[in-house]
Structure formats: C-alpha cells, structure tokens
Automatic annotation (TrEMBL):
Organism: Planococcus versutus
Keywords: Acyltransferase, Transferase
Annotated ranges, domain Thiolase C-terminal: 259-381
NCBIfam families assigned: AcCoA-C-Actrans
Source organism superkingdom: Bacteria
Protein name: Acetyl-CoA acetyltransferase
GO MF assignments: acetyl-CoA C-acyltransferase activity
Pfam families hit by this protein: Thiolase_C, Thiolase_N
SUPFAM superfamilies, A to Z: Thiolase-like
Length: 382
C-alpha cells in the first residue's frame, strides 16, 4: 500500500492588501517560495514530477498558468510541468489532494503542491469581469455573496455580534502571541521586495494582526453586508497577498533518497454543500474525513478551520463538538489574512509546524469554498 508523506513545507509572510507586497509580482513571490522549499528539502529540482498550484483569480499576472511560470522563474528544468487549479478558497488544499492522489496511483513519486494569491495586484473577481451568473443557475439556487451567506449562518446558529467579535479579538491575540514567541518563524521564508518609496525591504513577519484589537474597537465598526446584520470587516478574513507550498513524496521514494518525512497524509475529503449558505461545507467534510481515517475529533491534537468569517469556525465547533482550545491556536485568517489560493497550504504548513512544536500526533485542516464546497485533510506527524 503506497503512502504519501510530507517532506517539507514553507510559506511567505502574509501581507495586507496594498501592504508590503504591493510591488511584488505573484509569479515571482511563488517562485521564491518554491526555491526555498527545494533548498530546505535538499533535493534537486529535476526530481520533481509536477508543480500543482492553487490560484483563484487567474488573470493578469496570475493568468497563463502561474504554476508553470513560477516554476520556470524558480529555475526548475523546463521538463518539470506545472498546472494551476481553482477550488476557490481551498485551491491549494485541493492541490495537495491531487498531488497525493497522483502519488497513490503510482503515476508520480514527487510532487509540489501549493498556492499563491496577490489580492493587491490581481483584485478578487478580476477573472469574472463583471459577468452575472447564468439564469439557468439562478433559477435553481439563490446565489448571494459570501458575506450574506455568513450573515445567514450567524442567524441560523444564533451567534450574536458580540460572540463573533470576541472570537475575532481572540484570533488577533493568539496571532500576536504566536509572532512574539516566534512560532511562525521556522515556516516563513523572508521575502526581499520593493517598498512603497522604491526602497528595498525584507518582510519576515505576517502583516495582518493589529495590536489594540478589542471588543470595544470591533464593536464600533459598521456592518458590511446587511444594515441590521452582524458581519463587519473586523470579524471577517482580511484580503491578503502570499504564497505557500509543500513537497509531497511516496514513502518509498523518501526512503530511497534518505529523507526523513515530517508527516503523512492519513485521509482526504471534498464535498459540495448548499451554494446559498455556501460556507457550511467544513462540517460535512470533517465528518467524512474522520470516517475515512477511522478517527474521532477527540483524536485530533490541533485543527485549522479557515476563518473566512467568524460564524464559519464557530458553527463548525458547535456541530462537530470540537475543543476551542485546539482550534486555530495561533490565530486565523481574521488576524493573519486569507490570500485565497495560498491559504490551504499556508494553513497546512502552520499545522505541521504546530504539531512539531507541541509534540502532537494528528492534525485536521478544513476550508469552506465559494459556491458551496469544502476540503478536509488529516495528517499524522512522524
């Protein structure tokens, strides 16, 4: 029985939209992460059989198959191919699943899976170009934006504005604590880029967390999607720029090359969910992946559930019966940001390093996705 292992994982810092990566091309940002990944793994680029990157807004500098262009920029031989995929916010997590499946099938032994998104240089929905949904779709489903979906989830699960804001304050507090203690330092490759005035700067920490984020501060923010709603910019994920990647390998190939894997992928799931509520998919995806792994939520030492909006992880906690002290322990997308196509492997890299730091065995990752989908992954630290 073939087994898929994670040899190495690395990510860029995450910058705010129009922040420190405003002058950084996304293809070059991804290339820097790919180069660092291979340097840390200590194997030749020529051994990689495919580069699979997630990217949501595939237009402009992110068009033309950014996985291929980033690989060439990073100095991979021209015979190492690349492919770019879009499963919305879970794109790079799906890249991991596709890479793992290729290895399990015996088609490949070494695959890079990752993602990139510059929400500064390629704004969200650039690829949609203002096109409205098909009437054949809207006749079947009520298609609304994700913010309104988050409002409906908050209403359905009975979450108050104060509960959502309290969760968001916790995200900032945990993220700032993690940065102060250096928890993210090992997983981040510092990026040298051009500052706003043309000067050279080195970005080595996530830019998103805001000191002084309190219930009082968040309580003063206006709602964004519904006049009498509960969703604000303070309890939603930040638009961001970033890149991330992991090196996947068959256990046999790792042994042959004398490499020590960091973890193995135990189980994967992907599901579709109600496209109107849209963001509830991680609940069903988690149940499915736990069943596939023959494990229980109590067996998980840590879980990362993407903080697209505060009601998403809170609804997940409620329905799964998870332990809030194991969820997003070093902050989430509300504080750290959500560079769409990069978020899946960003969270996987952080989960992997957190298990190493704490000596945990099992980690679970789940992400909600546009139009009602979700991926879930369980890893075991080795």
């Amino acid at each position: 029985m073939r087994e898929v292992v994670i040899i190495e994982g690395v990510r860029s810092p995450v910058a705010r939209r129009k922040g420190k990566f405003a002058n950084e091309r996304p293809d070059e940002l991804a290339a820097t992460v790919l180069e660092e990944l291979m340097s840390r793994a200590g194997i030749e680029k020529s051994k990689v059989e495919d580069i699979i990157l997630g990217c949501v807004s595939q237009a402009g500098e992110q068009g033309g198959n950014i996985a291929r262009t980033a690989g060439l920029i990073a100095g991979f031989p021209d015979y190492v191919p690349g492919v770019t995929i879009d499963r919305q916010c879970g794109s790079s997590q799906q890249a991991v699943h596709f890479g793992a499946q290729a290895i399990l099938a015996g088609d490949m032994d070494i695959v890079i899976a990752g993602g990139v998104e510059s929400m500064t240089r390629v704004p969200m929905f650039s690829n949609v170009q203002g096109v409205q949904p098909s009437k054949k779709l809207t006749e079947q489903y009520e298609i609304i934006n994700q913010g309104l979906s988050a409002e409906r989830i908050a209403e359905k699960w009975g979450f108050t504005r104060q509960q959502l804001d309290a969760f968001s304050v916790q995200s900032h507090d945990r993220a700032q604590h993690a940065i102060k203690e250096g928890y993210y330092k090992r997983e981040i490759v510092p990026i040298q880029t051009q500052g706003p005035d043309g000067e050279t700067i080195l970005v080595s920490e996530d830019e998103g967390p805001r000191p002084g984020t309190t219930l009082e501060v968040l309580g003063g923010l206006k709602t964004v999607f519904a006049e009498n709603g509960v969703i604000t910019a303070g309890n939603a994920s930040q638009m961001s720029d970033g890149a991330s990647a992991v090196l996947l390998m068959s256990a046999e190939k790792a042994s042959e090359l004398g490499l020590k894997p960091k973890a193995r992928i135990i189980a994967r799931s992907v599901i579709g969910s109600d496209p109107t509520l849209m963001l509830t998919g991680p609940i069903a995806a988690t149940k499915k992946v736990l069943e596939k792994a023959n494990l229980k939520i109590e067996d998980m030492n840590r879980y990362e559930v993407n903080e697209a909006f505060a009601p998403v992880p809170l609804a997940w906690l409620h329905d799964i019966g998870g332990n809030p002290e194991k969820l997003n322990v070093n902050g989430g997308a509300i504080a750290l940001g959500h560079p769409l196509g990069a978020t899946g492997t960003k969270l996987l890299v952080s989960l992997l390093h957190e298990l190493e730091r704490t000596g945990g065995r099992y980690g679970l990752l789940a992400i909600c996705e546009g139009m009602g989908m979700a991926n879930a992954t369980i890893i075991e630290k080795l």
